[in-house]
Here is the input.
Amino acid sequence: MAELKELTDENYEKEVINSKDIWCVTFSALSFCQPCRMLHPVIESIAKNEKVPGVKFGVVATEDKGLNWSTSMSIRGVPTTHIMRGKEILGTKVGFVPEKDFIDFVKSTAKV
Here is the structure.
């Protein structure tokens, strides 16, 4: 069973940027953002049940633990999801997306 990894200013570079893996990274603000609260369990389910094999899933808390990375990635609205390979952003989706559409977006963007 996979996990939804908490990405922070301290571990983001090591986990995502320096990795050869494909990452689905969602920048979120669970403390105040309703679409973020709706998307979080969707992403958690996809990650834990390995519905997109070959892709790692992580979430960045834009309001505290991931503020610096969120700023450096020019995140202007939440939730924002990037499909990434190292520093390269393969695709971006902004806002809440139902599970089936989210899975389709990740698979087509990551080409898995």
Notes: Residues 23 and 56 are 5 Å apart (CA to CA). The chain has a mean pLDDT of 96. DSSP finds four helices and five strands in the chain.
